[in-house]
Specification:
single chain; Heat Shock Protein 90
């Protein structure tokens, strides 16, 4: 039963999808046809109604003018109907016919008792079958006083000519409307085809573009209309996608290269340890070297994981109030235990809401990188202003090469050779710093110059809402 219902639902959905044109060009042509049909039919209906009303008003005005002329003759003393009057009759208040035009052969009055009573009260108009005028005629009756006597002036006109005109107009509209609708729909079909032709070309090209064909782009139509802007936007998107894939390929290549070296060393040391089973000291040296390479691989894997999470926007943070100055001093003590340039921490106690572990990574990378390239001294300065905590790490080394500054925080970017030292890392330190600072909704920038003349990296992180109680607790923990 479930499969039957599914098939029935599928058929229903298929019928629902099959209704109407499937192509945009067909839908536009259908829209043109429906719109033109509504417009033409409403216009034709309005024209028909307005024309009928205008014709009716013209006939009524003509009848009133004829009544006025007859009334003028009566006032002049002639209680008769002019011979040239096409259809007219004078009726007394008692119903006696006082005069008729030559076209009225019968001596009977043209108004019935009820109509005569109404005409004696006010101007009266009726459309009906009238002997002498045909089945479709209009009569206009108006009361008139002359010499103390009340008479009714009646004039009439046939509407047959008007009816013929109405029928011809309706026939013309009935014939012309479908032709005009078809012509407009056809024009819409051709116009939509011409407008969508560049889209068709772009669609055909997009179906064959692949990542193996670098630099291939969609045909861009000329001009500055919506289709042209769509082509430019899609080509710009392809540029970004290609650049992104190029960066990913470079990242994979660099990561593979960085992993290959420690793995080769680790394998060599383990093979050497197996060969030195009879020499405990050499075996211990080989195992210690293997452990160092394993730790290097572990750090590299952690760095790659941080970068991968940063790209996915998912670096987890556990914020707590922390004294940034005390944390900088703790990292300096750990790093500065061995020989190398001196590290001086300056500033005032600043408490901010940060992830302690991630801040430790930021400081370790920045201070370790600065000591690697410094000549004699590294300065770490911490201060706070306008709700932002700023950490500045500067050294007196050669600084960043000018060509490296715009890419200092890119992955696998190294300044070791340019800055005259060897034994640098994988080129992930500053990239890790940038990713972790961004996770804290902060900013980081690198330049050369003050305060020591070498490289200078500034990290700015929002301080966050830190109350007095948490501030004292944080300082106590750091101490």
């Amino acid at each position: 039963m479930g499969r039957t219902v599914g098939r029935m639902r599928g058929r229903t959905d298929g019928h629902r999808r099959a209704w109407g044109p499937r192509s945009l060009r067909g839908r536009l042509a259908l829209l043109f046809a429906i719109g033109s049909a509504v417009l033409l039919l409403s216009s034709a209906g309005s024209l028909y109604v307005i024309l009928n009303r205008q014709l009716g008003q013209a006939i009524d005005e003509g009848l009133r003018q004829r009544v006025t002329d007859i009334a003028a003759d009566i006032d002049a003393g002639a209680l008769v109907v002019r011979p040239e009057e096409p259809f007219a009759q004078l009726i007394s208040a008692s119903g006696t016919v006082l005069g008729s035009s030559a076209t009225i052969t019968s001596s009977r009055r043209v108004l019935g008792p009820t109509e005569l009573h109404e005409a004696l009260r006010q101007e009266f108009r009726v459309t009906r079958d009238v002997n002498g005028l045909g089945t479709n005629a209009r009569l206009l009756a108006r009361p008139h006083f002359v010499g103390g006597q009340e008479v009714v002036i009646v004039v009439g006109s046939s509407l047959e000519t008007v009816s013929v005109g109405q029928r011809r107009l309706g026939l013309a509209l009935a014939i012309a409307s479908p032709i005009l609708i078809s012509a407009i729909a056809g024009g819409g079909w051709l116009l939509a085809g011409a407008a969508l032709h560049p889209v068709g070309r772009m669609t055909e090209e997009a179906e064959v573009i692949s990542l193996t064909e670098e630099g291939r782009r969609l045909p861009q139509p000329p001009g500055d209309d919506e289709i042209a802007r769509l082509g430019r936007t899609l080509n710009a998107m392809l540029d970004r996608i290609e650049a992104s894939f190029a960066r990913e390929r470079a990242f994979v290549d660099d990561a593979s290269h960085e992993l290959r070296t420690p793995l080769a060393i680790l394998r060599g040391e383990l093979e050497l340890a197996l060969l030195q089973t009879d020499d405990p000291r050499e075996m211990e040296r080989a195992l210690r070297s293997s452990l160092e390479e394993a730790e290097r691989l572990s750090r590299l894997a952690d760095d790659l994981l941080v970068l991968a999470r940063s790209q996915a926007g998912g670096i987890p943070l556990t914020r707590e109030s922390l004294d940034i100055l005390a944390a900088s001093q703790n990292v300096t003590r750990r790093i500065g235990a061995g020989a190398g340039p001196a590290v001086v921490v300056k500033g005032e106690p600043v408490v901010a809401m940060v992830d302690a572990g991630r801040l430790d990574q930021i400081l370790m990378n920045l201070i370790g990188n600065a000591r690697r390239f410094a000549n004699e001294q590294v300065i770490v300065e911490v201060h706070q202003a306008d709700g932002v905590t700023e950490i500045t790490v500067a050294d007196d080394g050669p600084g960043f090469p000018s060509h490296l500054l715009p890419h200092a925080f890119d992955r696998f970017t190294r300044g070791d050779q340019a800055r005259g030292r060897h034994g640098g890392g994988a080129g992930l330190g500053l990239a890790i710093v940038a990713a972790l600072v961004q996770a804290h909704r902060g900013t980081v920038e690198a330049n050369n110059g003050e305060p020591l003349g070498g490289a200078c990296v500034r990290v700015r992180i929002p301080t966050g809402d830190v109350g007095p109680t948490s501030r004292r607790a944080s300082i106590a923990r750091s101490a």
